[in-house]
Structure formats: structure tokens, C-alpha cells
Amino acid sequence: MSMIEMGQRARTAARQLARAKTDQKDATLVALADRLAADRAAILIANAQDVAVAQASGLSPAMLDRLTLNEARIAGMATDLRNVSTLSDPVGEIFEASTLPNGLAIHKQRVPIGVLGVIYEARPNVTLDVAGLALKTGNAVILRGGSETLNSNRALVAVIQQALQESGLPAAAVQFIDDADRARVTELLQLDQYVDMIIPRGGAGLHQFCREQSHIPVITGGIGICHLFVDASADLGSAVKVIYNAKVQRPTVCNALDTALVHRAIAAEFLPRLVDQLAPAGVTFRADVSAQPFLTNDMRVSPAGPDDFDTEWLSLVLGLKVVENLDEAIAHIAAHSTAHSDGILTRADAHSARFIAEVDSAAVYVNASTRFTDGSQFGLGAEVAISTQRLHARGPMGLRELTTYKWVVIGAGHVRP
Amino acid sequence: MSMIEMGQRARTAARQLARAKTDQKDATLVALADRLAADRAAILIANAQDVAVAQASGLSPAMLDRLTLNEARIAGMATDLRNVSTLSDPVGEIFEASTLPNGLAIHKQRVPIGVLGVIYEARPNVTLDVAGLALKTGNAVILRGGSETLNSNRALVAVIQQALQESGLPAAAVQFIDDADRARVTELLQLDQYVDMIIPRGGAGLHQFCREQSHIPVITGGIGICHLFVDASADLGSAVKVIYNAKVQRPTVCNALDTALVHRAIAAEFLPRLVDQLAPAGVTFRADVSAQPFLTNDMRVSPAGPDDFDTEWLSLVLGLKVVENLDEAIAHIAAHSTAHSDGILTRADAHSARFIAEVDSAAVYVNASTRFTDGSQFGLGAEVAISTQRLHARGPMGLRELTTYKWVVIGAGHVRP
After folding, report:
1. I need a labelling partner for B283 at 20 to 30 A (CA). Which of A139, A393, B121, B416 fits?
2. Does A113 sit within 8 Å of B245, measured CB to CB?
3. Residue in B closest to A349 by C-alpha
4. With contacts defined as CB-CB under 8 Å, which chain B residues touch A21?
5. For B411, which of A211, A217, A367 is closest by C-beta distance?
6. pLDDT digit string (tens) for B166-182?
């Protein structure tokens, strides 16, 4: 099938899906969860083929782990689908309703975006995850997974399409580019007429490629150079715990901490204590010249290089810098943050108020770990991406962020004077 | 000044502007209104230069009219600015606030988008209009007006920048590309690092150019192929009046009607009546083969050509088509509408409900003229554009649509388990 044909089929399916009732969409999600369990043998056989090829080609153990499915992971995918079926459906929500002075009744009503193009890498669970969220919100989706997962995705999408058809929904609501050729990605990015939004899930290179190749709106995000500023008034015991959590709990993800900024007034007490607490967890440190005097002769601390404060570590490395005051902390964040998640640890209300007002990141924290920037943690029930762009949606994108709205205007023969 | 320098200045100004209090922004709008009145002589002299050049170069009378300023128009611009100063400021608005089960307090807070790039054509009033809306919402703006208005815009922007400085706000909050070279437009579209949103105000060609040349999000819109469907149950007297208004009241704008779809059951009665009522206002008609039998030997009616139902008339031409039922009307709209403004005229609640559910245009009407699609008419108090794209905002964009949001999360030393 040509990509244009795929786009046309998606557009037609999107129209049908936009009219599907919540009950039917939820029943389909549950039917899909059941079918996943029933068909797990076929899925595991297909996945084993991908794993064998990946092992032979020397894929890293971390990537192999992300690629591998097993009974427990399939059961987890089914549970996630059931959970999505219990969330409230944003489609049809009415908001900003009013009656104008001339008697026109006007409101906004949420509708699906239309057709989503999602480009991702190794993990086959993303296939189910995205299909479930798209189905729930009445969007058709064209999926492009990593070439390592071709067999797994083929098997998963067969199951999805069967569940759709059995539930009376169009199979083309979830389509899959069954072709490892990278040219197909470029073709997808150029389907302006049929695709309404591109969601890349991967590294900075993929995001940039999508932006450059596409005139379709692209949701960019997922790159976090995150900061916590320890103010002079911070509860230092709590600050150590929050920084420990933000750095150590899961260092490989975008909301993990990259840089701790420490107020000079408490640096002498706080910095050695922080290093002592975090080093046993395997954390190593890159200290700015401002922080080095407080950590002399400490083998766990290296001098920060020129690019270190512009690096998303994704590992157990933490940048350390001493600042003179709140202004310097805010200025450092403005210069180095990717506007993902940044926070202040303080007991001074005036400082937290200024930090909230002046730090313009997707998520701004007071006295909490940056690790909370996540759709589930924020109570959205699901997450399709974390946006660090400014339009449409910022931060964790849940179901509502997969919708747009239309204006509905109801009159009684109204004409404009 | 290089465009990059202009971008850097805008970014710096945007940071200051984002922190400006509502009072200060409103006072600046009023000061600007006062200064416009005080400096009107200099503005009129500059405008007269533009008008003289335009007359010599043979600009059309309609374009000349749009270009020309006079005392009354300057007074109108000042009044508009005062009106914007009275609107409520969306920046800082808190919404979707909740306390999570773990005690984290979380909310979304509206913030300015940042730096806007606005590209427009002849009318110098757009300069004030956009500057006022940007200032009110704390956004910096880089303006690129038509080459015909270079002197007028130079004078207007001088007044704006003086008012900004006198009010303690950065002059670079409103910058102007004082150079008629079209290369500057392309450079503006490539300032990804400094510009957050591009708003083209002009024809389809300008919109397409911006989309193709820029990786910055572009607000496309303003192109309306608009439909009204006269259902079998419509009040025919009211239907004629609504169609008259939608077609005749201001035919040159995007929310004017282009096509009337008429249910076959009432076509024999309605179509001749419609033509009789609209023709005296100068309306001419393009009838589909389905409508021609009801309008035989009528010199005011021509057969519709193959592209006529895909044409935005912007003039006193109206397409006519007879449909068998609601489904055919909805299908025609799906195929030919630009998703701007489409409506149904009916007394059947089930039909209006289906029309609202199934027609996915930025504004969907029941028993009202499409001419209401407008920020002022919708009660937004102002309008920066009418979006026909799907992301960020659809339909009339007011002050709120010139903002985005950030998440604010307040804890007490919270860490993620």
C-alpha cells in the first residue's frame, strides 16, 4: 500500500472514529485486552524472531531488554488498555459555554485531532500504548516503529485490527508501516493532507528530523535538562532527599535531575553533605568553579567542562554550581534549561512565588522532585508524550491533549447586524 | 539591525514583558492611545507619503482605501486600544487545579507564548491592533507589514516604542522590519530560536509560503469556503434571511457564505424564492445540475463549473446545490469545506444534533448566519486571527489564544516512590 493510500484510509477511518460513542470505544479497548491475552503465543513467537535478529546484530543489552516481550509484559499491556477504558472520554466535552447578549448560545466542544503519525523506536509496548490512547480519543493513527520490532509490531497490529473489526470499528483506525525502509518515515512526514499531528518518541535527533522534514505540526519534547535550586532557606535534610530522588530514582529518563544550583549561604554545609549522600548510589559530580572550593580533594567530584551544564546526562552524573542569589539561579535556568522541569527548594514564600512567576518551564516545582513530570503522576491517567514546545500542549500530554475543539453556535434565525 | 539581532532583542523583551503586571500593561495601552492622538499629524504625513506612492503605482481603489489613514481612523485605533486595556488579562489565570492523592498541589497557569512574528499586508491599522493584543498578553512581536505601508508603519511603530519606553517597558517588545526586501520575510520565518509563533494575515498564498518556509508553528486560517444547508424542516422565511445575511452583508470576508445546499423536498419552493430575494442585492448564482431544474430560464443563474464548489468567492456569487438528505449535505461539506464556518437551518432537533456531531468545522452553526465567526461577535473582545488549523486554537483567536500554560507543582519535600 502506498503511503498516500494509507493516509486516505486513515482519514476515512478518522471520520468514522470521531462519531464512535464512548461505550463502543471502551468496549473495543477491553476486547483488545482480551484478544492480546488470547493471542499471546503468536505475539511471543513474532517477538522471539525480532530478539534473535537483534542478538545476532549485537544490539545492546538495554535495547534488547526494551525489545523483549514476555507473558508478564503482555499482561501489563492488557492491564494498561483496561485502565484507559476506565478513564473519562474527553471527546464531546463542552466548555466555555455562554449565551451572548444577542441570544446566540455558544460553546466549545472537544473533538478528536484526526490522524496522528507516531514515530518511535525499539519498545513494542508503545504500539499498544499509542493505539489505545488514539482509539480512546477517536483519533486514527499511523504507526512507524523501529526496524528491530518489525515482526512484533506486525503481530500486535494484526491483533489490534482484528479487535477493531470485531467491535465494528474500521481496521484502518490503526495502521502500521510494515517496511523498514527509512524513506517511509520521510513520506509519512510529508502527508500534510492526511496527517494532522506528528508525535516523535525518541531522541533529539528524531525530533529535529521531524521538524525539518515536515510541515505537519510536530510535538517536540522529551529532552530535559532539569534543575533544582537549593535556596538559603531550604530545609537541607529535605533538599538532599529530593535531589537524591530526582537524580537516582531513574536516571535514564527526561525528568531526571541534571544540575543542582546551591545558594552560596548554605553551600559550605550543603555541598559536602549532598556528595556524601549521593555518591554511595553511584553518582559522580561535575562542579563549576563556583562549587569547587567547597569540595576540594574530593575524588568523586570533577571540574565541569564547558558543555556540561548544557548536557542532558541520562545517567548518574550531577552538575553542581553555587549561585549568589535567586536571580542568578533563575538566569542560569533561563540560559541552560530545556524548559522541561525545574524547581526550587525553599521555605521563603516570596522566593517560591518569584521562581514560579519567572521560570518558564513546562513544569515548575516548589519543594518536590522533578521526577513527577509524568502523565500518570499528574493524574492524567495516561501519557502520549511530554511536550517542551509552547503551542497546543506543554508538559505531560494525556487524553485531553489528543483533542482539539470546535465552536458550536446555536441561534434562532440570527443574522449579523 | 540583523534579523538575528532583532530576534535576540525580542526574546529579551519577551522575558521582561512576561513579568509585567496587568496594571502596567493596561496603563501602557492607554498611554499609547493618548500618544496616537497627540502624534497624529506626524502619522498622517507619513501615511500621505505611502498613499502618494501607491496612487502613482496604480494600486487598486480598494487597496488604497485600506492603506489610507485619517483623523477618524486614528481615533478608531485609539479607541480599540482603550477597549483592549479593559479586557481581562489571561496571563496568570490558573486552571485545572487539583491536589493529588500524595498531597502535591498542581495547577496549570497561563503564560505568554513568547515572541510572535506577524506578517501582513496593506492595512496600517493591523500594526496597532497586533501590537495592542501582543502587549496585553505579554508577548513580544516582530511585525512585517506590506511594502506599501512602510512610512506609515515606521511612524506608528515609533509612537508605540515611545509609549513602551515611557511606561517602563522595553521598546523591543514591538519591533518592525523596516525594509521592503522580501528576503527579510524568509529570514523571519527561519528565526526558530527566537520566534515561537508565526501569524500570517493575508491570502492563501502567504499562508502556504509561511508553512513551507518555516519550522516555527504557523497559525493558518482565514480561508473560508462556507456552507449553509437548508433542511426540509427549515423555516423558509428565516432561511432566506439568514442566507441573505451570510452572503450579502459583507461578501469580501472569509466568513461569508459560498454555497447553499437545499433539501430536495423544499427545493421547488425555496430556490426560486432565494434567487428572487438575493438577486436584487447583486447576487449571481452558480447552480449544480441538481439545482438547475428548479431554476430554468433564469438569467441570474449560471451552471456551476467543475471548480465552483471549491472556490472561496469573496464576492456576490453563491453556489446552489440540491441534496437528497442530511447525509449528502454533510458529505458535500466534508468534501468541499475549508472547515471554517458551516451551518444547518432546520427545525428538526435530531438533524441539528447530527450536523453538530458530524460536521467538523472551526465553527458549526444551527439557525444562524456564518458571518458571526469573529472574535468580537463571539465575545472574545478582540481577534488576532481566525484559525482553520486543528492544533492550539480553532476559529477566532482572542487574548487567551495568544497564551500557553505551564504546570506548577507545589510539594513539601515530595519524592517519587
Report:
1. B121
2. no
3. B410
4. none
5. A367
6. 999 999 999 999 998 99
The answer to whether residue B386 is domain-embedded is no
Q: Do residue B21 and residue B111 come from a single domain?
A: yes
pLDDT in tens, A163-210: 999 999 999 999 999 998 999 999 999 999 999 999 998 888 898 899
Contact A212 B215 (CB under 8 A): yes
**Based on the structure, what is the number of domains in chain B?**
2
* B196 reaches A (C-beta below 8 A): yes
8 Å CB contact of A100 and B379: yes
Residue B387 within any structural domain of the chain: no
Cβ pair B215:A211 closer than 8 A: yes
List all residues of chain A from 339 to 358 with a beta carbon under 8 Å from chain B. 343, 352, 356-358
Confidence of residue B274 (pLDDT cuts 50, 70, 90): very high
- CATH number, domain at A82? 3.40.605.10
pLDDT > 80? residue A18: yes
Tell me whether residue B366 is in a domain: yes
Does residue A310 fall inside a structural domain? yes
CB contact under 8 A, A390 and B113: yes
Q: What is the CATH number of the domain that holds A307?
A: 3.40.309.10
Q: Which residue of B has its CA nearest to A114?
A: B390
- One domain, residues A255 and A328: yes
Which grid cell is A302? 570533577
Task: Please indicate, yes or no, whether residues A148 and A278 belong to a single structural domain of this protein.
Answer: no
Range of the domain at B317: 226-372
pLDDT of residue A249: 95
- Is B114–A368 a contact, with Cβ atoms under 8 angstroms apart? no
Q: Which residue among A249, A372, A406 places its CB closest to the CB of B361?
A: A406
From B235, B358, B373, residue closest to A413, measured CB to CB: B235
How confident is the model over B193-215, as pLDDT tens digits? 999 999 998 888 898 899 889 98
A195 min Cα distance to partner chain B (Å): 11
Q: Which residues of A touch B251 (CB under 8 A)?
A: none
